[in-house]
Amino acid sequence: MRAYLCVLGRLDVVKKSANKASARCPAHEDHKASLSVSRADQFDGVVLHCHVGCKLDDLLAKLKLTEADLFDNPRDIQTRLRRCRRLPVHR
Ligand SMILES: [Zn+2]
């Protein structure tokens, strides 16, 4: 939950619920809510997805965040990534 709120706090949020939000993508120019932000409970983190196709690295750079900020407990990242089939990394 911490990571989700942290990410949303940096975005221009258009629509928001407890587990999912839409926001303007900081990595490309448009006025639509192209970015979806979802809470991923299986690894206590956040998945960012730009519908236009911006890379996660670009999103993080614009948001001034690192991959660790996408997890509630950064210390456990490696364990969680190993356990999780769907990584929050679009590369
Ligand atoms: Zn984008």
Could you explain the architecture of this structure?
The protein is of the alpha+beta class and 91 residues long. It has helices at 2-9, 56-63, 77-83, and strands at residues 12-16, 20-24, 35-40, 45-50. It has one domain. The chain has three helices and four strands. Strands 1-2-3-4 form a four-stranded antiparallel beta sheet, with helices on one face. The longest helix is centred in the N-terminal third of the chain and has 8 residues, at 2-9. It binds zinc ion. Zinc ion binds at residues 25, 27-28, 34, 50, 52, 54.
Key phrases:
alpha+beta; binds zinc ion
Query: What is the H/E string?
Result: HEEEEHH
Number of domains: 1
Spatial shape? globular
Q: Averaging pLDDT over every residue, what do you get?
A: 86
Strand-residue fraction?
A: 15-25%
Largest sheet: 4 strands, antiparallel
Q: Spans with pLDDT under 50 lasting ≥5 residues?
A: none
The percent range for helix content is 25-40%
Please count the helical segments: 3
Radius of gyration: 12 Å
* Overall number of strands: 4
Strand order of the largest sheet: 1-2-3-4
- Structural class, by secondary structure, is alpha+beta
| Span between termini | 24 Å
Unique ligands = zinc ion
